[in-house]
Amino acid sequence: MVLAKQEEVIKEWSYATARAKGVHTDYKLTVTNKRLVSSARSSLSYSQQEIPLNTIKSISGSHEKKSPAGAILLMILGIVAIVVGFVLGEGQMAITLPVALVGVILVVIGIVLLKQGAFTLVVTTAGTESSGIAVGAVKWFGKGKKQGRVKIKVDNKVADEIIETLGAIVIDYKD
Questions:
Q1: 3-state secondary structure the chain
Q2: What is the Cα–Cα distance from 148 to 144, expressed in whole angstroms?
Q3: 119: which of 103, 110, 159, 172 fits an S-S bond (Cβ 3.0–4.6 Å)?
Q4: Residue spans per domain, the chain
Q5: Least trusted range by pLDDT, from 25-29, 33-37, 65-69, 154-158
Q6: Long-range contacts of 80-86 (CB under 8 A, 24+ apart)
Q7: Rg of the chain's alpha carbons, rounded to an integer?
Q8: Which residue, among 123, 129, 124, 107, has the nearest Cα to 163 in the 3D structure?
Q9: How far is it, in rounded angstroms, from Cα 40 to Cα 49?
Q10: What angle do CA 93, 99, 102 make, to 5 degrees?
Q11: β-strands 46-52, 56-65: how paired?
Q12: 107 and 74 in contact (C-beta within 8 Å)?
């Protein structure tokens, strides 16, 4: 990112990374003393949206994390099923294999549930000539029709920090 004369970076956050078909993408949000910049960079592409700080009308953010209790319970049940399958089966594959397979499936479902979550940030602007910035990432393993498998990792601590501090930074540096 190239800075204008007398422009300086106030804060920069790397809030998410994505991996699809071997391509790694980094997502950043940067606040300078003059503008707010959202960018995504990979080895294949670069995209950037920016708005001047003095046009920002409102900031709305949310960071949703799933409760780990259900996921942990599924993983525990899965581990118990695996152990029970081997103990009850006593070498009989007809009993051991199906019960252990159910246990493995429960553990995998628990792990996937632990990885769910979403981060969204919507910045609106004053005036009709400007459009806002929408930033977001869903922390989930998914299979899209055209995209293939995409793994997005949201940094929970950074997402919370953006939501808690961005408004104050904009107020401090807005004209």
A1: CCCCCCCCEEEEEEEEEEEECCEEEEEEEEEECCEEEEEEEECCCEEEEEEEHHHEEEEEEEEEECCHHHHHHHHHHHHHHHHHHHHHHCCCHHHHHHHHHHHHHHHHHHHHHHCCEEEEEEEEECCCCCCCEEEEEEECEEEECCCEEEEEEECHHHHHHHHHHHHHHHHHHCC
A2: 5
A3: 159
A4: 9-60+121-173, 68-112
A5: 65-69
A6: 81/106, 82/107
A7: 22
A8: 123
A9: 9
A10: 130
A11: unpaired
A12: yes
Return the amino acid letter for 111: I
User: Which tokens belong to 155?
Assistant: 């940094």
pLDDT tens, position by position, 109-154: 888 777 666 778 888 888 756 566 667 665 544 443 344 556 677 8
d(CA 81, CA 14): 40
Identify the pLDDT of residue 116.
67
Please tell me the total number of residues recorded for the chain in this structure: 175
In Å, what is the CA distance from 35 to each residue of 7, 19, 52, 53? 9, 28, 4, 5
User: Residues 6 or more apart from 122 whose CB is under 8 A from it?
Assistant: 59, 60, 61, 132, 133, 134, 135
Q: 59 is written with which tokens?
A: 């900031």
For residue 30, the one-letter residue type is T
